[in-house]
Amino acid sequence: MFKRRYWVIIVLILGGGAAFLAYNSGSNEKAVDWQKKYPQLSNNAGYGKLAASVPAYQAKTASQQELIGKVSNEFGIRDDVLKLILNTIPESNVRATIAAIKMAQYYQQQIGVTDDKEMNVISNKALAANYCLNLPMLEQHAFINKYADMLRDTPARKAEQNRIENLLSNHVISADYGIQSYDPKEQCDHFLGVNS
Amino acid sequence: MIKKLFISICLLFSISSSFALQKIFIFHINGVNTNQQQANDNVTALQNTIAAQSNMISNNGQVDLLYNKKDGPGFCDLCTQLSDVFGQKKYENITVDDYVKAYMAANKLDYKPGTPEYIALKDSIKAKYYADPTFMGNNFTDILNRFHNKVGTTAYLTEYLKAASSNGSKPFVLLIPHSQGNLYANSLYKKLTAEEGYNQSNLSIYGIASPAASNLGDYISKTSYNNPGYITSSNDGVINGLRVFAALPPQQAVAAANITIPVNAGELTGHSLIGTYLANPAARQQIATNTYNILHYFWLSNIYSNFEQTKTGGARILSPGITFVATQAGASGLSINGLMANGNCPNLPYFVAKDGTYDPEIGAGRQCVGSNGGTYQFRARDYDNNNTIRIKINRGSITQMLLTCRRIQDNWFGYSSEWQTISSSYWGSAIGGYNSDQGCSKVRPGFPTAGGYNRSDVFKGVVGELHI
Description:
The structure holds 2 protein chains of 2 kinds. Chain A is an all-alpha fold. Chain A has 11 helices and no strands. Chain A folds into 2 domains: about 1-30; about 35-190, no CATH class. In chain A, about 65% of the residues lie in helices and about 0% in strands. The longest helix of chain A has 24 residues, at about 5-25. Chain A is globular, with a radius of gyration of 20 Å. Chain B contains 15 helices and 15 strands. Chain B has a 4-stranded antiparallel beta sheet with strand order 1-8-12-11, covered by helices on one side. Chain B has a 4-stranded parallel beta sheet with strand order 3-2-4-5, with helices on both faces. A 3-stranded antiparallel beta sheet of chain B has the order 10-9-13. In chain B, helix 4 (about 95-105) crosses helix 5 (about 115-130). The interface of A and B includes residues 147, 168 and 170 of A.
């Protein structure tokens, strides 16, 4: 008969195995079909451009990717950020969903950028995306606060955000829609790549 | 009862190097402990607040952000910024002259103010004063640089504005700071008015949740709109906390609260820009109205100064055609959409002149045509031989006006009629702002056209409502 300590070892081994499987199971979330999970994204004109509108997550260095966190969705943004977006914004509000994803893409794009002018350009676009988000003010406020907290939820991430904000010194942050129009809807249509 | 008049002017301008409408900049300066994402969201919320009141945003461009960054060691950004606030408060009323006197005392100098020696010394060290974070705050130089980066550049200038700027004309700037941003806004005001040619009529501050003893940029609000130029809640816990410290010399006082916003469960400090001030309907309305008033003042100054230029003959409004549309609202006198239904025109106090001389007779002789409201149109006789028309609108006579500018379709030029006619429905859309920005001058390469009307950047700032 096994002694008690062997049972303990076996339990530990089995527990470790289970944990390993669970971890792999987590990795298999890469296979999660975001389109099926959130069909509203794939049914909009802006969807196709969304994945290609900013440099891909894959273009980041390994350390930057590690800093960003787990990404398994086609938009190249943190999975937990995408979940926040999709859990916060009503499924019917596809336009805001696209704006939020785009905003997250731009803020994520800032990670690792060392040129202040490039950083400013990205920040301008992030502001434009924030404007095009156009949720009810307090809902947007709560969403942005949660999102900003997520961007700083580890010491390393917080340090990176501080670095980004310092690099923005001397620059005005000004919405850049890539189009000179005085009609906000027209600006956002163009910026988001939607036609609604 | 104050009579409200709504006037729309459609001006079809050709390029003139001397006609200059200055750009209007709107900047937000955030308070302490605000990250980039939150500051951007503040900008969006402010923009939507102002836009809900008028079309000033869509016609003037966006609210920009002079980001007051979280400047401090990572472990306690807030500590550093709060320390910064106390420093700014302590030295809030220290002027450059005080600085010079302190310098002289430290260096055993005794120049009398106004003497060449004193002026030379002041000139030599005032840059130190403006760069000294003890007086101006840690982020002042950064915020000033941001301002210069945007406003100091000539990139935004059209050829019209370059001409004006070369003559020392400044753009209009509205600062909408929150919390510590008010202290920076005051510092900016000191610097820009003392050193860079701005004045109380082209640089204005509307403060929110202000810890400052006063708003240095309140001239327009106070003199034209009987408003203190800031809004601070009596339930603002952060500002009230500062009052405790402010009571201890040498800290400076904090301006009195002028609204009471109930503290809500979601924002217990009563201090947040969005969670408190913009979330409260009354406060939000005050912010919208008071910033709108300042922007209108800028508009008026912009237009009026140009009309004044015509009086001196220094500038001409060149145009192959010009239409002046005036409308008076209905019984309430408040609706900007209210074209007069009876076809009667308001008694407009305007004059049209030729050859640099104003002639009231010509203005008084304008007809009001059409059945849908007061549409004033100029006739060929109003133009001089250079196709120049001059207009003067008397300040104080008109309480509100809507001014717009659009390019008439080219094929309209083929009209044999002496009149250039614009339908009231056309103007209806113009008043709404959506189509009111059609340009009147250069066609921007590659710029989309809408409804056959070419847009222009030249008159980006011309469309909007004006209080006179």
